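Quick illustration, no need to memorize.
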Amino acid sequence: MKFFKNKFLGIATLVVLFLVIFYSVIAALGQTLVFGNLLGVVATPFRYGFRALGNAFGGFADYVTEFRSMKEENEELAERVRELEQKVAHMQVLEGENKWLRGYLGVKENLVEFESVDASVIGREANSYMTLYTLNKGSLHGIEVDMTVVTENGIVGRVESVGVNFCQVSAITENASSVGAVCARSGARGIVEGSLGLREHGKCAMNYIDEFADVQIGDVILSSGGGIYPHGFVIGTVTEITHDPNSRSLSAILEPAVDPNTTTRVMILKKATANTETTD
């Protein structure tokens, strides 16, 4: 290592001596201008290099400044977007509340014989045979088994079981469900029933329709009353019609008016209690 250091120092000394002697000779000959030009030619690439390097550092500094400015602007825009999203979400909640209230009041006005209890869907239990939806109202609120559960759009199902502060509801698509039904357009009658096969597709069937009855695809089917379900609530819309030659009857596949999987608020219907007044 010491050898290489001494060698480097020796070479550097020789180069310096060479330049001094070379410049002295050039000066003696009066050719210092040539030497200056030669040094200029040799130094030119270095000057361009240092200039380019300086410009690069300057441009990089400008880029960093601009980047910081853009980052701050993006952060401000992102905050503004978050504020707008929160406002939109709040407006959607209010719109949903207003829509629900209008539907609730509309249903309530048409139910003279029933009291309606507002309830929220708070849970869902599913197995191979039945799906039950849990509501946040129970016996404390006067809820009983077999009470009808509806929305402003139509029938959801019936109360299957009741707890103190909750109840469970089965939809009309369940296998054990049965609803007396009538076609709103033609008056054709039948019974809407659930089945395991149709339940998987979120549908049910209106069976025991007279084979000569006027039922068409697109017809709206209503509850006919006379059972646990009150008259006049929408059950669903006919999507398919089949004829059974053995029973000489028609069956209509229905798309239910209410999808319980996407429903968050419902109304439980219970018989209205008559208020009696006594006078002396």
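The first strand starts at residue 114 and ends at 126.
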